[in-house]
Each structure stands twice: as C-alpha cells, then as structure tokens.
Amino acid sequence: MNRPLIAAALSLLAIPLAAQSQVAATKTAPPTGFTNSIVLWPAGAPLAQGTTEGDTPKLFTYPVAGAGLHSAVIVMPGGGYTHEVMEQEGAAEARWLVAHGISAFVLEYRLAPAYAYPAPMLDASRAIRYVRAHATELGVNPSQIGVWGFSAGGHLSAYMATTHKPGDPTAADPIDRVSDRPDFAIISYGVLALDLYTRSGTVPLQTLIGPHPTQAAIDAVDPFKHVSTDTSPCLIYSTTGDKTVDPRNATEFYEALKSAGVPVELHIFELGAHGTHMGVDQPPAMRELTLFPTLLANWLQLHGWMAPQP
User: Fold this and answer.
1) What is the reported pTM?
2) Is the Cβ–Cβ distance between 12 and 101 less than 8 Å?
3) How far is it, in rounded angstroms, from Cα 128 to Cα 107?
4) What is the residue-averaged pLDDT of the chain?
5) What percent of the chain has pLDDT over 70?
6) Whole-number Å distance between alpha carbons of 299 and 211
C-alpha cells in the first residue's frame, strides 16, 4: 500500500517534531573502504532540523570495476534506529557483494532521538530513487536494484519492499521521476510483523514511533500489513536463538508473501543470538551460519541478479 510519507508524518509521528528539534542529530562514522560518498539531498533533506552530519543522509559507494551494467544492492545497517552498525552490517556486506560482481551502496539514514518516522523511510526511498535515476553513470542496471537490511535496517528494507511508489513523471527533481520499489530485498533478523508484539502488550519500534503510538502509527510501519502482489521478492534470514527479534517475525512475513504469490525464500538457523551479521564472524560452535552467504549467492543467481560463480 502506498503512503505519502511527508503527509503521514504530520499525523502519525509519535514524537512531535518540535520536541525532536531540541535533540542533536546522531553522527555516524562512515564505513571503511568506500569509494565516494553521495549526499542524497544536497539542498537539505525533508524534515531536516539542521545541517550537521547527522542531519544529512548519505550513500557510500562500492562500485564494481569493469564495463557493463551491474546489479546493485543498497545495504541498510541495523542499530535499533538509534545508531548504525556500519562495519559488520554495511562495509563487510558491501565488500562481499563487490567480490561477487554486484555494486554496493551503504546507506546512512537519520536516527532517533532527533529523527523518528518517517525520516528513515524518506532516506531509504531517496537512496533507491537516486541509484535508479543515476544508473547509467553508476554502471548499474536500473531494473536490478535491491536492498539488504539488518535488524532495524531489515525492518527498513521490508518496509520499502512492501510500501513504495512509482515515479512522478511531472516532478521537478529528476530523481523523483523514477520508482522507489526495490527489485528484491534481503532481510536479516528484522522486525516484520508488529502484531506479534502488540498481542503481548509490548510496544514495538519505540525509537521509531514513540512509546505510546496509536494503532494507526503502528500499522503505518508494519511490513506485514502492507504485503501485496507488488511486494518485492524477498530472502529472509533469522535464527531460533534470537531473543531480541522473535524469529516468528520471519515465518509470519514469509507466510504473508507466499499467500500473495510473491517469490520468497526463508532460512532460519537454530543457533545464533541477535546480530549474527553474515554468519561468518561467529564462534566456531555456530559454523552452520557460514552457509548463509552460499545460500544467498544461490538465490541471487537463481533470479539473475548475480552472475554464476566459478
């Protein structure tokens, strides 16, 4: 279901903008190894409260060398919408993608407490539109642009997979003339079905929608509620041992996508607490998680988003 995000902000923000403006924006250290940084709105982002680093959403580029158009993935780090895990859930994945022939971009989106819904969503939307609008100069296939998110970034990726808008051909800004729908989404241990929490009396995503949100505010950011036949194909990763984000988020979201006829693949490993990244930097007892990059590569190759590997 499509929603005009800025209009929704005026009615659904649980933390009033006036109150947020009293809080300094969170500055995030950039990921290592990037080639360039791209300011998504050079003249200032929507809802921006200042012009500091934390007020300025960016993309950090990791291009693939060589001629031709490549698939691209925008990596969205986790961190509970209060910080961003730029290395283990950003730079590491970007390097892996480049090594497999996919151009990567790590998104720095705006964070609580200075920014709540819909600022991170606006940043994610703009990132997808930016890469698509500049596909030729970036060496990217505009119909093969995916997202890959972890934890809060997984929620953000699922939000974009389910809640997106076509481009406006009459927009003054050429970037707004293209769609913000990701062509595929990789979702790692993200909050995907908010009813799991409200049924037990828990308020989910409080850093995003505040401690006392209305049901409308909860529904607005619930990916499960917005699954449709136009939802992006998804690969979902979780672990049974995750005590922070219940793995039933993954199964309920999978069932919703399957019922809607959306291509979807689900992997839930037995071991692993919340925040297992790509699964390759965990203790030896969790070596089964090291299979995940292979499973991911197989899925990307199945759909033609990654070239067959030797």
Assistant:
1) 0.92
2) no
3) 10
4) 92
5) 93
6) 38
The pair of three-digit structure tokens given for residue 1, joined into one six-digit string? 């279901």
pLDDT digits (tens, 9 = 90+) for 179-212: 999 999 999 999 999 999 998 889 899 999 999 9
Rounded Cα gap, residues 224 and 264, in angstroms? 14
* H-helix or E-strand spanning residue 183: none
Residues with Cβ within 8 Å of residue 86, at least 6 apart in sequence: 28, 29, 30, 31, 77, 106, 108
For the structural domain made of 14-302, what CATH number should be given?
3.40.50.1820
Alpha-carbon separation of residue 103 from 52, 58, 133, 189 (angstroms): 28, 16, 15, 23
Which residue shows structure tokens 């828990």?
202
* Amino acid letter, residue 135: A
pLDDT tens column, 17-29: 333 446 899 999 9
Alpha carbon distance 177, 202 (integer Å): 39
**Among 81, 107, 84, 111, CA closest to 20:** 111
What is the arithmetic mean of pLDDT over 133-139?
Answer: 97
Burial, 241: exposed, middle or buried (Cβ in 10 Å; 0-12, 13-18, 19+)? middle
In 3D, which of 144, 159, 269 has the Cα closest to residue 204?
Answer: 159
pLDDT of residue 201: 87
CA distance 223 to 89: 21
282 and 48 in contact (C-beta within 8 Å)?
no
Query: Would the pLDDT of 48 be above 50?
Result: yes
The SS3 call for residue 59 is strand
